[in-house]
Amino acid sequence: MPTYRALPDDPPPEPAAPKPSTNSPEPLPLDGSESAEEPGHHRNAKPIKTPQSRASIIFRGLVYELISVAVAAASFLGLLVLLRAYDNKPEPKWSPAPWAQRITLNTLVSIVSTVFRSCILFPVATCISQFGWIWMTNPGGRSLQDLTSYNSASGGLFGSLNLLWRLRFWHYASIGAAITLLGFVSGPFFQQSVDYDLRSVIDPAFTPSANAVAAYSWGEGIPGWNYAQDAFQVLPCNMTAAILAGLFAPDQTSPPKPVSNCPTGNCTWESFGTLSVNSKCVDISSHLEARVNKTEYYLETPGDALPQRTLNETGSNIINKTIEAFRCAVYFSAKEVLPRVENGVYSEEVLQEVTRPENVQFLDEGEKVGARRYFVYIHDSWDPLVFRLPGLPPNRRNNFTVPMTAFVPIYSQMMHDLQGTVLWGVGQKTETTPVLLNKADSVVQSIQNMADSVTNEMRRNESSTGPERAIQGHVWIQQQFVVVRWAWLALPASMLVLTSLFLAATIVETRRKDVGVWLSSPLVLFFNAHLDSSGKDVLSNANPKCLNTAEGNAQVAAGLKATIFRGSRTIDVVATEPAKAQESDVEMRPLRRSNEIDTSVGEGRKDLTSDHRRSDT
């Protein structure tokens, strides 16, 4: 019967060369032993296999694993730097060539995820296999079937789960199995670390403008009118139309908007000053006095300059109607406004308003019917109204003027349109402006809409005749921004740390147990295994059909036990139960085999605990 012997770990010593002279030292044997002729001659010489050389052998054997961990760390740190650079920044897109498709940030994250996972799982799989050999250094031996569990764990998901279940998380190899499981779910964690938020940003490619007016002048050169009642005849038609459009707008709740240009529907401007027309209304319903007879009645406001309104209507229920009266003043002013367009809707915020011209005195009628600074004298000198806004930027004009040739015609037009008598009764069907205004839901809103319409027409007319006075603003567009969710990168970071510790533990345990750096080599058992007679009996009694499959080989291995002695490169393989090594014991059912594996693992756990205690002492 042939004899199975492992190859020696070190080559045999070469024969000693003859001494060239008495003074030259004799060369050392290659195996580090002392010379047989002179036992004490080289007693102080260091052996070749020092701890430093042993460590260098281990590092050389794991050089690819060390490089792989370094690549994983470099790729992960590079990803962190990249994400930090683009966090809360617009989504980057790179193009390797003009004709090529753009590379997005998600593509780079996916590439880094693949490289990281590959560089992590490679050294972990190798170290798990190495711990399979370290597992065999138990003095009592281990089941040879345990090697299949280690090899399966180094290659896939189910093998890692099986190894964790068998080791009860009580061995260094459990760390590698856990890292392998985490590696299969690390991809989504990388992808979830990058999110996108849709934000509004300024696009310098567009230059929308908000039209503002610095001064509104018309009618220059026209001689002054002696009577304001006829001055409306020189008012431009567009201004007359603006007054009527504001009064009779179909939707009184939606005031007219100034002219603006916003290509995207979202624009902003810096604040600027503009000339405007505003209104102020005071409720004077409490000052009305009703005089009623059977056929007609009229309302009178004592002491007011407004004309008396006479209402003629047949019936006795007219007195039960609620009568409202407002006193409204329409006046020029200068405003500092902050416009914006959001989702296509224009709005203006009034930052300040100056209603008092600096060269005109105001009436002061005390508490009489709320009349105060909104009513001005008409100057006989025909001086313009001058408004000045304080605090505007130096590049913004802060003085605004209204010539009397413009003020008087507007005043005349409003007096012509708004002054009159409203009558009810048979034959009173004239649709004059006072009648239409009386039918409005809100007189106050109608007057304010008229003022806004006049302001918009002033700004539109001025900016169309003087484009240099248009205020340039900013266009806002919707753009995707990168939002890094750093918490999702905790798992890859933990995997990198655990892999580094696992590799370090592999190096330390390989050196401490003095095991060969065999890793996942399938040739180790061919060259280093030594079967005794009991082990050979197990192989000879095995059913040849069992050796045709991996599962059958695992069944046969369950009847064998392997031991690696510290410092030896020989793997002694013996039968687990030599006295009961029969064919019926070799061909075990999976359930029975699992139970025997569980027992061996439990014993191995006790042996491992005892090994740890001995190493601690």
TrEMBL record:
<keyword id="KW-0472">Membrane</keyword>
<feature type="region of interest" description="Disordered">
    <location>
        <begin position="1"/>
        <end position="48"/>
    </location>
</feature>
<feature type="transmembrane region" description="Helical">
    <location>
        <begin position="103"/>
        <end position="128"/>
    </location>
</feature>
<feature type="transmembrane region" description="Helical">
    <location>
        <begin position="486"/>
        <end position="508"/>
    </location>
</feature>
<feature type="region of interest" description="Disordered">
    <location>
        <begin position="576"/>
        <end position="617"/>
    </location>
</feature>
<feature type="transmembrane region" description="Helical">
    <location>
        <begin position="62"/>
        <end position="83"/>
    </location>
</feature>
<feature type="compositionally biased region" description="Basic and acidic residues">
    <location>
        <begin position="603"/>
        <end position="617"/>
    </location>
</feature>
<keyword id="KW-0812">Transmembrane</keyword>
<protein>
    <submittedName>
        <fullName>Uncharacterized protein</fullName>
    </submittedName>
</protein>
<dbReference type="Pfam" id="PF11374">
    <property type="entry name" value="DUF3176"/>
</dbReference>
<dbReference type="InterPro" id="IPR021514">
    <property type="entry name" value="DUF3176"/>
</dbReference>
<feature type="compositionally biased region" description="Basic and acidic residues">
    <location>
        <begin position="580"/>
        <end position="596"/>
    </location>
</feature>
<keyword id="KW-1133">Transmembrane helix</keyword>
<feature type="transmembrane region" description="Helical">
    <location>
        <begin position="169"/>
        <end position="190"/>
    </location>
</feature>
<feature type="compositionally biased region" description="Pro residues">
    <location>
        <begin position="9"/>
        <end position="18"/>
    </location>
</feature>
